[in-house]
Amino acid sequence: MIIETDTDDMTDDFPRYITYFTAPWCIPCRQLKPEIYKLSEQTDIPILMIDVDKAPRNLLDFYEIQTIPQVLLITNNGLIGIQTLKSRTATKLLEEIDG
């Protein structure tokens, strides 16, 4: 399930979720986007797709987003970061998530 949003307000509804910080002008983001969609088909973990241009600055500061694309696996117990490189695939991301 992919949820396009500019906030993480609904995160209390999920025990863990993935956030994908992106922007329409970002070429590496556009290259990674199909892999994010593939990942959504391979896992039942919700994926929040957050456009950094629309997201509040305090949200980006909270997650320390300085470069994009960036994918984070977040649980109620804390934050487990997955630094995303443009060469990542859905399969490799899933391996890291299931790690």
Mean pLDDT over the full residue set: 79
Radius of gyration: 12 Å
In the predicted model, the low-confidence regions spanning at least 5 consecutive residues are: none
Q: Which CATH class applies here? A: Alpha Beta
What does this structure look like?
- This protein has 99 residues and is of the alpha/beta class.
- The protein has a single domain, classed as 3-Layer(aba) Sandwich (Glutaredoxin).
- The chain has 3 helices and 5 strands; from the N terminus they run E-E-H-E-H-E-E-H.
- The protein is globular, with a radius of gyration of 12 Å.
- The mean pLDDT is 79.
Summarize the structure.
With 99 residues, the chain is an alpha/beta fold. Helices cover 31% and strands 27% of the residues.
